[in-house]
């Protein structure tokens, strides 16, 4: 029998599950098309039994609403495409379907929300009326074949489609804001741990839907409410979930501004330096630090309060790396440290004083702690950023760091997963960068030559498959090779010297990238 790779099997299961979930919404809609959206029963209680959402919790209802919204959004996009091609029959049938989905979505939402606003009811009415108008328009287009009439009607249909999309977007925005407000109200007003935990869980599921929802939650005071929890000892058992939630919201600018306003960094520093907290709490606090110091964010400049607390945060993170009981805890703590080394050069000096190099190198020899390319990526990022300091060379030698860097030049993905492959490339590239920087020191260069780093760097330059065709790995390896060649000219054959060291770096780079063709 044919055995599928596990990743392919997962994809198949996921798509089938997705189809099964969407199918209920689709068939529910088709039933409504046949019934022309007429209720089966006048009695409200009986009608409620027919609604999908009555069997679910608030969190499930929100997921159902988001799925329904996703289907409507997809259908509206497809209607616009069919309209462009004048496929009137398809346009009409899809318009009827959207009309039914909109009715279903509004009915479902109104069964599980108790206090929707007048503004929401008005928007619902506007959307329903515009959908009916849309269906009437497209039906009229089916009844004529006159090209001139169809052309003039097409602009009306387009305008109506735009209006439907606009009202729909506004309604979803209002609904999600309303739900975020409800959940935040539960967090702020309830003294019950169970209710608060449930509300935090509901909010967290919303943040997983994307940055837009994180912005809504931040705008509605989510960061303020969550830090209020983190400042009360009686809610200690909720700290890990609350901090995880904060890490999600702080991926958007609004979240960061709120964090700054409530002096969130000081709170995080207090949590990290308080030894009475659990490792899980410390790890989640490290995750928030990793998020707010991410070099990919463009809005970290205002984190002035971070610099004030940096020394104690860095100290606590190094301690967390040293005492980590699992690979996940080490990954979060080291990711935070790696980002901080980009954020401010003073961090590297603090790390040096804290003996961090030795701690990180020791952790790398423990396969239970540094167990993935992602963790090695964090470690080698810290080493690369620290290697600009002259004192690092002796630390690397003492901790057997050159051997580790050599091993990192062989980093290969075992799963073929694209994210893991990218992490392996980053490990190779940063290992080469670190070697190039540290080889200013003759002792490091000598150790690298003895460990056969030069032949490995040559192979990475000459064999595209060894570096997964990565240009950034190639540039870093050429730079490291040139630095080692200066320190140890005898380690290279003449052809390698003539092609990889003697020319301008850009010429060697072009030569190596063109080698891909000769291997085919």
From TrEMBL:
Pfam families per record: Insc_C, INSC_LBD
GO biological process: apical protein localization; asymmetric cell division; establishment of mitotic spindle orientation; regulation of asymmetric cell division
Domain Protein inscuteable homologue C-terminal, first and last residues per copy: 68-520
Domain Protein inscuteable homologue LGN-binding: from-to ranges: 11-55
GO MF terms held by the record: cytoskeletal anchor activity
Coiled-coil zones: none
GO cellular component: apical cortex
This protein's name: INSC protein
Species the sequence originates in: Origma solitaria
